[in-house]
Write a structure and sequence with these properties.
By secondary structure, the chain is of the alpha+beta class. Helices cover 31% and strands 22% of the residues. The chain has twelve helices and 19 strands.
């Protein structure tokens, strides 16, 4: 990098005639040095420095060139300026100042919401996964580079950014003013459900995710004495640290490959394997995913599925199966370089395919769920007839609650996932798996 920065000054010092003269060597392209084009880069930079109508910030020029170089490869290879690298480090630690969303770019160029952090500005404003940004801070968002979009969303706490949102199935653009604030992401949220089933929501794979998961499992065991099953909810989880994803899988399996990475030419670069130490009991396990489960989330779902450790419920995941290595640079920035692809234990690539669920369940709107529940409750049956006989034997009368009476979650609330169709199906599937195992 130092040589590239200084070279234009040398060219200018020796005169511009060198820059505009004919090429002295007409080498065959196949035998030319791969570094020959660097001289062209240096000449262009020298022309810009010497003749552009405005004074030139050379650092900005070099950073722009590096961004273009990385951007020519794939969507996830990027040059990060020092400020951008600091933001990435803050993300992995679970604390940053922004509006509280994770975003990605769809193939059609739209900046799309992957997940919304609970309690943040975007959550309070009603943003949802799948929402598309029409504009950010007055700038058209379609085909905007994701690092630029992140930059406009981040800022000092208390400052405001205006965004335009378009939602599928709705007309017009929703205009919102979001006040940036310090976002602290709790990676794990666990709730003990009726039937001694634990629902664990993993929001992201940060530095403390696996530890928080194990703490949640320990608390549930203290509260209930035992567990009949675990729902691992990875919906809208955009991923994060791969080592944390491996540790999450390792908590539930005692042997076998968790994930492998293969580089250029299919060469195996690394393979993570499970260890017996610290493995939890063989509880029935359901992994809940959707189209916004990405990267490390897909590693977890794919591993538990291939190792026959869990049933995957939901819809096909995002399909981000490439490996990025962070290379720190002398200027304080970094190169995030795609070096490999992820493969599940069965040797299947995640990239651009995603993880297919064992039980496909589309999500329904809360209104649709309520309407279906109302229709079912009003369906005529023997029990709807006046003076119908009770179905229980006389000795059982009064011994069991009415099946139609509202059931509670142990905290005075209604049954879990009342308006969440995917969650309810995962709960019913896990309950059935646990009951079947107990019968056998």
């Amino acid at each position: 990098m130092v040589a590239l920065v200084r070279l234009p000054h040398l060219l200018v010092a020796f005169g511009l005639g060198l820059c505009i003269g004919p090429r002295l060597v007409d080498a065959d392209a196949s035998s030319a040095s791969p570094f020959e084009n660097l001289s062209i880069f240096a000449r262009v930079l020298a022309h810009i420095e010497a003749a552009h109508v405005e004074p030139v910030d050379q650092d900005a020029l070099i950073q722009g060139a590096l961004k273009g170089l990385a951007g020519a490869l794939d969507p996830h290879t990027v040059y990060l300026t020092p400020d951008e690298y600091r933001m990435l480090a803050a993300d992995t630690q679970g604390e940053f100042a922004g509006v509280g969303v994770e975003i990605s770019v769809r193939d059609d160029g739209w900046i799309t919401v992957l997940s919304v952090f609970e309690g943040g500005p975007a959550d309070r404003a009603g943003l949802e996964p799948g929402d598309r940004f029409v504009h950010l801070a007055g700038r058209p968002a379609r085909d905007m580079r994701i690092r630029d979009a992140v930059g406009w969303m981040r800022g000092e706490p208390g400052t405001t950014v205006r965004v335009g949102i378009r939602r599928e199935g709705e007309e017009g653009t929703l205009e919102l003013d979001l006040v940036r604030e310090l976002i602290e992401v709790n990676p794990v949220d666990a709730v003990l459900l009726p039937g001694q089933i634990l629902h664990v929501k993993l929001r992201a794979f940060q530095a403390n995710t696996s530890r928080a998961l194990n703490e949640a499992l320990d608390r549930a065991l203290e509260e209930s004495g035992e567990l009949r099953g675990v729902i691992l909810d990875l919906r809208n989880n955009p991923g994060g640290l791969v080592r944390e994803a491996v540790a999450v899988v390792d908590a539930f399996v005692s042997s076998g490959t968790i994930v492998s990475t293969r580089g250029r030419g299919g060469v195996v670069l690394d393979e993570a394997r499970a260890s017996r130490r610290g493995t939890r009991p063989d509880w029935p396990l359901v992994v809940l995913v959707n189209g916004y489960s990405a990267s490390a989330s897909e590693i977890v779902a794919g591993a538990l599925q291939d190792l026959s450790r869990a049933t995957v419920v939901g819809t096909t995941t995002w399909g981000k199966g490439s490996v990025q290595n962070i290379i720190e640079l002398p200027d304080g920035g970094a190169l995030k370089l795609t070096i490999a692809r992820y493969f599940t234990p069965n040797g299947v690539s995640i990239q651009a395919r995603g993880i297919e669920p064992d039980l496909r369940v589309e999500q329904l709107s809360a209104a649709a769920v309520r309407a279906a529940r109302l229709e079912t409750s009003q369906q005529p049956s023997e029990a709807s007839l006046e003076q119908h006989l009770d179905g229980r034997a006389p000795a059982d009368l009064g011994a069991r609650p009415d099946r139609d009476a509202p059931r509670e979650d142990g905290q005075g609330g209604a049954m879990p996932f009342a308006d969440d169709h995917q969650g309810r199906m995962a709960y019913e599937a896990l309950s059935a798996i646990a009951a079947d195992r107990e019968r056998r």
